[in-house]
Design goal:
Oligomer: heterodimer
Number of domains of chain A: 1
Largest interface: A-B, 48 and 33 residues
Structural class of chain B: alpha+beta
Helix content of chain B: over 70%
Radius of gyration of chain A: 20 Å
Distance between the termini of chain A: 29 Å
Order of helices and strands of chain A: EEHHHHHHH
Distance between the termini of chain B: 191 Å
CATH topology of one domain in chain B: hypothetical protein PF0899 fold
Number of helices of chain B: 6
Largest sheet of chain B: 4 strands, mixed
Largest sheet of chain A: 2 strands, antiparallel
Strand content of chain B: 5-15%
Structural class of chain A: mainly alpha
Radius of gyration of chain B: 65 Å
CATH architecture of one domain in chain B: 2-Layer Sandwich
Order of helices and strands of chain B: HHHEHEEEHH
Chain lengths: 231, 277
Amino acid sequence: MRLSPDEIIFWQHGFLKLNGTIVFTWGLMLLLTVGSLLITRKLSSGLKRSRWQNFLEIVVTGIAGQIEDVGLSQARKFLPFLGTLFLFVASAALCTVIPGYEPPTASLSTTAALALCVLVAVPLFGIKDQGLGGYLKSYIEPTVIMLPFNIISEISRTLALAVRLFGNMMSGSMIIAILLTITPFVFPVLMTLLGLLTGMVQAYIFSILAAVYIAAAMHVRKPGIAAQAAP
Amino acid sequence: MLIDWFTVGAQALNFLVLVWLMKRFLYQPILHAIDGREKRIAAKLADAAAKESEAKSERDKFVQKNDEFDQQRAALLTKASEEAQTERQRLFDEARQAADALSAKRQETLLGDARKLSKTISRKTREEVFAIARKVLTDLAGASLDERIGDIFIDRLRALSDEAKVVFAKALKTASGQALLRSAFELPEGQQTMIQKVINETFSAAIQVRFETAPDLVSGVELNAGGQKIAWSIADYLSALEQSVGELLQENDQPEVKPESKAKSAPEPSKSTARPQ
């Protein structure tokens, strides 16, 4: 039994390899890019527009609205990073209905990569907003004693991000695989539906937590949001 | 090992590429389209607001003009009412004057008609009265009455004034002592002789008297000589009375005549028995 699509190796040359995770990720990238290209090719700025344009507008404005709700007033600045996080994780989960497909987010390498991206993005946005000194100063607040705890917090939440997404997506695939061997008919379909829901929730949680971390780094945290941010 | 660090690096790179691709092909075009639409809507809203403002100002202008128009109309209406009232009063006065004039004219006409009618009635009455009197006296006339008339004529001759006598004597001389005596009926011989005698006595001359009968005298005696006449007859009385009544009626026809004159001109038969003609 495979725990991760990493184990599907298509090609390997020493350190370099082409496994299932990378191939499925490329497939998703291709799907998202070509889909966007096809839909945005004939965009209308008038009042009359196509259904797909409406759908994309709803998705984009919905993500932007969520980012603003977290406390990032200039949502468009964070939209490419946070929106892509959500779309990638969500599309990875939604494509589980395709037979033979395995979500790349069920690989700890992918979730770790995404978490590392968040880990890098948070200080980058923080430094861009308030300068290097200002950002580093936030680690010794309210006192210097808090410095190790803040560093541990950064690492642990990144780890939590990666493991949470990986655990949920991997478990979903695992449960379906196990159930297929026990009750091969109706029950796996229900679990697949549940898996879709779980995948959407995980996508939302992942992108919202990333937004909250960025907002915290930019000192624009809102009361309540920070409390929710705890894993 | 669950984590393959090559895969981690590759996935991180893949993710960053995907971020760029999404930004390039999804977010930018979609946000651009949304911005364009919002701009158009904003422009339309601004245009609508401008039009609304313009419409509001136009409406205010219209309301103001309407008010002014109402005021002008009210002023004109008041002026027209006053003029109409004045004109009505003028026409009313004119009509009243015309009606008064017509009424006066009609009154005058009526009065004229009444007067004419009265005149006609008076004339007819007079004529009838005299016709009746004439008829009655003609019917009553007879020899005995003529005799009485002849007596009266004799008395009158005797009572003739000196002046009348002188005038008639002259006339007799002109007529060469001839005289004509007319009577309604033939006088008896004795009375003719008596009259001849009295005439001779009165004028102290032998006067040749010729006797004639004249029915138009009604009843009476008439002595003619040289254009002068001495007479007593009912016809004379009636003629005098008729003349008097005619004069009286003529006076009544004239509105200027005072009412007192009516009493004064009451008909009265002339007592004169003889008068120069």
